[in-house]
């Protein structure tokens, strides 16, 4: 079959079973859009900014586990997309992003809207391609989808010059693909797995350190099973929230900078750390020389370069967590008696009783934590929660009762303000039966506010809940703790939009909330409505996220209470 | 967790086999630049009768850094193989232009000692060429200074594992 480059893109997406594409057109990618117009295989959602298109595809991928897809044009279209690529890369999210490029004949001439896109995206993606000939396009697109979702997932960028989108060639789409130079390891080494089981059996204070790899691998059930048969307590990273399920008595909570006391103490006092797909981020480890000082470390990861990158690993296992655990659990069942760790579990429980995750509620002011708990009580499992970045993000991670993986969509590695709203749009497209909530801040929400138009036009009823503290709160908190309360450029209270009118002017619904009753009322109306909503909640301005391990501090030395 | 990594800087020769396609060199040099790894020298040439290229990279770093370099190189999609065996024949070439008005006493013996020859000559200069391991090339370039060279060019190492 002979097709031109643009038709090839459409046909490849059809074969990859793509249902939704997010994007924004422009000169260099117009040929592709002309074919988008003619087809009915997938829906195209026009966002109002390229960054939002990428985040929406990212949110789609996080909620569904499928590859997210986005189109952008050359030059500024592409540069606008870069933050989205970097964000997906550092969080290992499978995505294929197709950008237009000036015609091959003009590359290198500083043509209108020409930029070295693959040169820019290289450090922000798992792999990228500049397509020089339409005959290569079927193979490249097949590889792009394959690379994006296999091994450690990540975004792949395909840059297609305009003349290639018009060039006709034979369309031979490979059914299956093998690449000589890219062969991820899925199965763990069985001898090493046996050794690990022995190490676990010989330990007295083991801890499961569960990371985002458990979500990507679809290993949540097996991780829960691991904890259940062994009686070993677990902590979750930000990216793993939901894997264990918050009603699980073996879950000690989130670990790291804003982790729970019991989780951070568990890491500090363990004699064996069983790391299941985390990446030892500095926001988790704190000061490395003090991190898990007494523990031997097992690390299971599909990415060999992740193992031993930050800390020495005593028992490395390269493989897909799901496969490794399927092999490991039968051996574990025979060797391990969960009663052995009773006193260890009791100790951690006591830690949790001494310093539980809590906040002091207030009659007058609405506490931001209360809002999140309230949304959790009201919607629970029915909602998928996206966030922006800041205090509201950490409170969401701490206080929302997540019951399953892919229920929490947040920018972990890059910490991208402006991620939440477009991501929640992608989430709703992936899971229309769920309520898609974006918990945001008064700073972050303005970073992709134009997406109100997308949500309105494409009938995507996302509910934005703004925890409005009139501050760039997280930065303000650091200024309070570490900069003697010099609030440089963080007070937003002097100039804020009227969020209610703002939402209304885009065709959505807006609510201003000053009391708990008003919040309940607004949430109820928002859930019932079928348009995009914005609930502007006036919360206690100076609330801090606690506990806190200062950057570079030790996990067992948390700030538990701020004494100003 | 104990930190057993020694902080000693180690020199390492890596032979990286990659698919011979656009942009691989920038992927590799970008990887080194972006992650702050050292490149002491780098040479690239096609592997005969294949569609692969061989990069020979001389780098240095402590154990952890070197381990990461190898893993990160592997992680690049076009990388087929990274050879880091300690058993290498390693050779580097250097060209040195010397003015003719110098006294060449002893030059012949020196060239012999470093596998060298006279590669070219002009009206008022000669170009000598030597091929040897990197350390010895360095010594040679020191020794040749007494002939007041006009210009010196080093190739970077090529290596073959044995
Ligand atoms: C794009 C971007 N710019 C700057 C930052 C630095 N930053 C991190 S949190 C934060 C404050 C966010 O304020 P807001 O959205 O109101 O959330 P709050 O902390 O008040 O809940 C800032 C500026 C960032 N993470 N991302
Ligand atoms: Mg704020």
Question: Which descriptors would you attach to this protein?
Answer:
heterodimer, A: about 575 residues, alpha/beta, Rossmann fold, 21 helices, about 35% helix, about 15% strand, B: alpha+beta, Alpha-Beta Plaits, 2 domains, four-stranded antiparallel sheet, 8 strands, about 40% strand, binds thiamine diphosphate, binds magnesium ion
Summarize the structure.
Chain A is of the alpha/beta class and 564 residues long.
Largest interface: A-B, 29 and 24 residues
Helix/strand structural class of chain B? alpha+beta
The main pleated sheet of chain B reads as: 4 strands, antiparallel
Structural class category of chain A: alpha/beta
Tally of domains of chain A: 3
Regions of chain A with pLDDT < 50 over 5+ consecutive residues?
Answer: none
Strand content of chain B: 35-45%
> How many separate structural domains of chain B?
2
Per the principal axes of the C-alpha atoms, what is the gross shape of chain A?
globular
Radius of gyration of chain A: 24 Å
CATH superfamily of the largest domain in chain A: Thiamin diphosphate (ThDP)-binding fold, Pyr/PP domains
Distance between the termini of chain A: 72 Å
What is the CATH topology descriptor of the largest domain in chain B?
Answer: Alpha-Beta Plaits
Q: How many helices of chain A in DSSP terms?
A: 21
**How far is it from the N-terminal to the C-terminal residue of chain B, by CA?**
37 Å
Reading off the top of the CATH hierarchy, the class of the largest domain in chain B is best stated as Alpha Beta
Q: Care to count the β-strands of chain A?
A: 20
Q: Order of strands side by side in the largest beta sheet of chain B?
A: 2-3-1-4
